């Protein structure tokens, strides 16, 4: 007996020697994988206790275990409930009675089934609440808003898509939460001028305000713009705002730095010029999908002496307008002309030759620009960090060499659907900082070019090779070896890719997203290798990988405990494989279309077993085969069904697919 | 005084202008008195003429041609009186009276001439005792002339009542009259009606022409003063101010007979009543709506009203007096501001009103669109509530009780149970309706067996389902929802007329 007692003591003591501070510091670094902290806490009792005291934020998977979890972690101050589809008033009661004054932030943005009573419980007990995210609580009414108003210390509040809340509720919040700094009312369609006006009157500390798609007019906007500290204002899609309202703005909203007026179609250059008179300190201006960008509009923005960022996505632009931007005295650092109609070589050239400090440029789908533009861009904007030029199909293959030659600082490059070839890739491999590279639908590239990328761009995190059919295993192996930090890869419809690629990709331990649709050569073995090694995997799309079956699912179920989203359509998975996925506790979304080996009862069992599902996409005919009470039960559990009636589609030849696309345009 | 702007005072204008032409050179006090007394007498003359609808428009010209001597004036008067002979009075007696008056006036005229001649040297000197005596003498004479003239004229008037009125008032007031007229000429508006103002107001109510028949000295006096005042948009004094007594304001009737004092709700009724007071009220002109004729013949005097409550802003003695436009305004104002609020809203049991119409207006909106503040104040409009909240610290919008109740239970279940409650209520209503219908049928004695009628009414769920399609009022308290159900159900049995009728009982 004595021996037994004396022997284990020194072993435990060894860990106990580490002070709490040191363990805390170790824990601070364990953020990448949630399981790391779990492992550490299992080392010994003291570590367990220290880890419990260390944890400040919690993202529980099931609301059922809230009591236990909160008992274990007494110092939690931030709770994220977005993985719990069901949060009842009882769960809120548990949270409020356990956390009391310690709770500072809580998120319900994906949860349902709670009412104002639970909120009232929470707000009354947790007096120090600073942040509440109640987005998507479409059921909540003014009464709930009135209870939130009791949280007097609230500084940040998200009410996105709370459609049932009206002016009255917002009025309560405005009066109650005087310390609000951030308020997001996007899509709160019941809120109008009166509620927003009261916010402007009562909440003087507001820094950030999102009023997108609200039926507000000039009246409340002028009140909002008088807020002393307002820095960030979003009025996207507010159709009630027009030139007249902007004309009424009193000069002196000095604090406003960011303004988003996307989709405000009733604002012309007249309104903008009065705006620029008032808000001289604007740094960022977003005018996407607005009125035509012509000379008058551009001239109206001339007075913004601090402007750095302008986004004109989806606007119709004229050449004179772009040239006028080129004549501005200021130097832009970010410009977005994505999907602008009317961007020509002349216009774009005049901008880039003047604004040489551009760091980010987006010319997505500016289909009229040619290699002339690219030459100008690369020539003058040598400090570019981000260049997005999807579908600039007029640019010749040879021109892409310039990117690598002249823009060595590039970190983000989108060349989707371009004519770039291996020479271009080889040149781009000089951009050693590259972290995101999109080469989707680049049919001219082969392994030769991509191997250079793999060898040189060691910082690559994101690689998109969607339908770049020239790619085979060798380049993927080069990437996997060279870019160990890879987090996301898309090899969809790269039909020659086999398990060898996946096996080497399994070396990229940070991989969290793998999309390998339509790779018929991939089998369960390859997937198993990924599952075993890549513990971070959270999104997996193996649609149309016909050779993946239950053999791939079982290791996945066993090892990939972080998997949230999976698409197993058109695979050879059967009941067994699907049912095994139930062991992944955080699985939320599942798409199961045209899986021939699946029976209704197997599906039912799998759905019942996966307790955390919030979204399931199924073949429509399953609806009649699954029992109605089962569906109701699952829906009550927070699962949202999407019934699809797609017909089975045979895979097309990639070249042919591109031709089809061209015909449609 | 601008004679041109005088309203309905042609004769008076004539007389006064002729008087002026006489009294122009000699600025003797007695003459002024004389003139004023003549003016007074001519009022009566005028009153008579209006009543007779006499075409006197040509006479001003005559009068101006035959300038300015008392005799002429007298003649004119007699002319006008003679032309009144359409009525059945004794012309010879009148003629005697007039000639007597003429002699009297001549005597008086001679006497005054004498005085003028004597005092010619000492016009500027202080009035000696003799002069004062003479003045008193002349005044006494004039008074007697006037009394006689009035009695002569009074015999022409239809009602005894009026006759006495006319003969009394000048005598009693004659002593002060000159002074009064002098003062009032300089006054700019606020007229204190000496007496009998109630009668005048009533006569005003009955209409302009109608009132002419009953006009007396005071009435004309007031008008003349109003004439003297400045023009339009109601600077003080540009209008005639009338003030009713409290009792009259609160009386249920607004139109009073000036002869017997009987009250009526409608002027038309009063005019019908007036027929009983004499044939002259039976003429189409007297029976017609008074206002129209008035408009065509002469511009109407603007009348404004004063509140009898001393200290009220609507009282004419108030510094910033704001007159009330109509009698109705007076009534409503007085009731709203100076009376108890006796009508209580049966819905909210809090709001009280003193004017029945206000209660009715309120009841239309009571309970609907109630915008509540945490302080308990209610608003009919949301923007008013938000304005209130923006203004006061700590006030916050209150959630209507309805919503609190609705979301009390777990959301889904709560709604379900509510729905079932509704259905139960609905069924109950159907039954009660059926019972009502049955009663009606029994009363009708149609003898038909009611169940046959009511079987298609549907206690079944399908009709209940259809029920949801009826427009729902946004606000429902227990009462209104009940009535809603009743009224909703009446659309169902379209083939059953009697049944529908029974629903009207609600």
From TrEMBL, chain A:
Write down any Gene Ontology CC term: SCF ubiquitin ligase complex
Membrane-crossing segments per the record: none
Q: Which CDD domains match?
A: F-box_AtTIR1-like
InterPro entries in UniProt: F-box-like_dom_sf (IPR036047), FBXL15_LRR (IPR057207), Leu-rich_rpt (IPR001611), Leu-rich_rpt_Cys-con_subtyp (IPR006553), LRR_dom_sf (IPR032675)
**Which positions fall inside the F-box/LRR-repeat protein 15-like leucin rich repeat domain?**
87-247, 331-478, 519-614
Pfam family of the protein (one): DUF7885
| Top-level lineage group | Eukaryota
The record's listing under Gene3D superfamilies reads:
Ribonuclease Inhibitor
Q: Which GO terms describe its biological process?
A: SCF-dependent proteasomal ubiquitin-dependent protein catabolic process
| Protein name listed in UniProt | F-box/LRR-repeat protein 15-like leucin rich repeat domain-containing protein
The record lists the organism as Buddleja alternifolia
UniProtKB/TrEMBL annotation, chain B:
Where does this protein chiefly localize? nucleus
- InterPro entries in the record, alphabetically? STOP1/2, zf-C2H2_STOP1/2_C, Znf-C2H2_STOP1/2_3rd, Znf_C2H2_sf, Znf_C2H2_type
> Would I find Acyltransferase among this entry's keywords?
no
Q: Which residues form the signal peptide?
A: none
Task: Give any GO molecular function from the UniProt entry.
Answer: zinc ion binding
* The entry's keywords: Metal-binding, Nucleus, Repeat, Transcription, Transcription regulation, Zinc, Zinc-finger
Q: Where would you find this protein in the cell?
A: Nucleus
Domain (C2H2-type): residue spans on this chain: 255-282
Q: Name one GO biological process term.
A: response to acidic pH
**Protein's recorded name:** C2H2-type domain-containing protein
Query: Which organism is this protein's natural source?
Result: Buddleja alternifolia
Organism taxonomic ancestry: Eukaryota, Viridiplantae, Streptophyta, Embryophyta, Tracheophyta
